[in-house]
């Protein structure tokens, strides 16, 4: 049986800590101030047996932050309500928090039954609790009437917990480890230790892990679970992890430890928030709120797009601007509380943890439309960030709680490029529109250039190379563009007629390059010798290249086509007598310096006139074509 973590919930002085002690024999109020004041301030931990851990949380409204940190790491609730008081304000707030965090099953303990002599009153309290929890669809495993002074009912509750078959749903297919830190301390002879409940994957002694948001990578020196040393912990287990060479100053309650390079920090998230029915607060656009992610609390502002405020019971997609960076993953749940006075007003689930990365300009245009269903959201995100297409491995990291990407691709008709970049039919359609617009703008700006080099398109469009080629091929099939001269041409483009002045200028540039002979000439040398406007000179050079009068060697080097043909002739003669050619041989053959020989050799390699083999060149297939 996998480990089960149970968290107490209930109003102050309703007997949560006493009940935990009666159940486990352990005193969870470990702080001197807690014992002195007779109230729980921080989280307490106790073990029912090797399978069940109980987290005792504070009941006072001042310590809801600590309660939320504890609730973030539990699987089931133990709701404690005193018979003489019934449901009280913090009972309601705690139940709201459990509901927000997805904890909707557990046990109910009605304590202080010794104070109430009227048994019918306790029946009414039980009925009230049952009716109240039914609003949350909370599944009550059992009602238990407890007298902490005499121990009446304690063994019955303990046996019901121990004999229960409740277990957490585990997704063992996800190997990425993640744990929210709820305690951290040093132990003599061991060093720094962090504790928490493993919420994702598994960890083994010796594994590398990353501490977030500090982005410090270290190793796991040792692991304890339920008081015993173990080699491995899995999702759902309570764990105390000994970290190698880490100082306490690098940790806080709310730190996350995880598999390195899986979770990223963010200061902005898109989320689906729901306002609790019990709140009297109204959430307004730009309102400052307290957000409880995992075991951490952070301040942020709620940005509401299409309405001025959100009322109780309403659920809306919003943008949250966080005041500091936080490690957040898709579908993480969080609690939202008012800034001051502090009340629980709602909570939500992260729909997109990295909107800054995904939407450079139109972030508000997508907020309302992001679906809550993970599979639908996967398709939506691929379509929304189509021009920043991602590898399937990146999508698996983003959907860290849903390692089902391969199945979703099959079910949704999502396609993969050769390099496993994901795209949809809609992505292709959007890509074609953008490329056609790009070609029109390019030709408008560069009226003499009928061919656009793939490198030029790449630098302007900045898409994944695989996806770009797929869209270009679609446009070729539709006869919108054609492949020519090492680039792409817009079929409908027609080059303007040249004036006599332009023809003379072209001849001038050609003659200047021709005079350089076998020595490649650079763009700035042509500019210096002719002194035409740079953009105009580039047009003239391009026309000469497209008419095959000169060749562009790359890195702004050019050579006249006649001299290039002569060079190829020299190479054929050379290779008739020799099998290999060094750089030094090439320099002597052509009368070049190393500075001009290297770009020429690289050009010859690229065109397959020669083939580089270590530091030598051999005959390329095209040399004799």
Notes on the protein architecture:
The protein has 625 residues and is of the alpha+beta class. Helix content is 33%, strand content 29%. The strands form 9 sheets. Strands 2-3-1-4-5-6 form a 6-stranded mixed sheet, with helices on both faces. It has a 6-stranded antiparallel barrel with strand order 7-9-15-12-11-16. Strands 17-22-20-19-23-24 form a 6-stranded antiparallel β-barrel. Helix 5 (119-134) links the parallel strand 5 and strand 6. 37% of the residues are buried. Mean pLDDT is 86; it is low at 31-41.
List the helices and strands and how they pair.
Elements: E1 4-9, H1 16-24, H2 32-37, E2 44-47, E3 52-56, H3 64-71, E4 76-82, H4 89-100, E5 105-111, H5 119-134, E6 139-145, H6 154-162, E7 178-180, E8 183-187, E9 191-200, E10 202-204, E11 208-212, E12 216-225, E13 228-230, E14 232-234, E15 238-243, E16 256-258, E17 265-275, E18 283-284, E19 287-293, E20 296-303, E21 309-310, E22 315-327, E23 333-338, E24 344-352, H7 355-358, H8 374-384, H9 392-398, H10 405-412, E25 415-416, E26 422-423, H11 425-445, E27 451-453, H12 454-461, H13 465-477, E28 481-484, E29 487-490, H14 500-514, E30 521-522, H15 523-530, H16 534-546, E31 550-554, E32 557-560, H17 561-577, H18 583-590, H19 594-606, E33 610-613, E34 616-619
Parallel strand pairs: 1-3, 1-4, 4-5, 5-6
Antiparallel strand pairs: 2-3, 7-9, 7-16, 8-9, 9-15, 10-14, 11-12, 11-16, 12-13, 12-15, 17-22, 17-24, 18-21, 19-20, 19-23, 20-22, 23-24, 25-26, 27-29, 28-29, 30-32, 31-32, 33-34
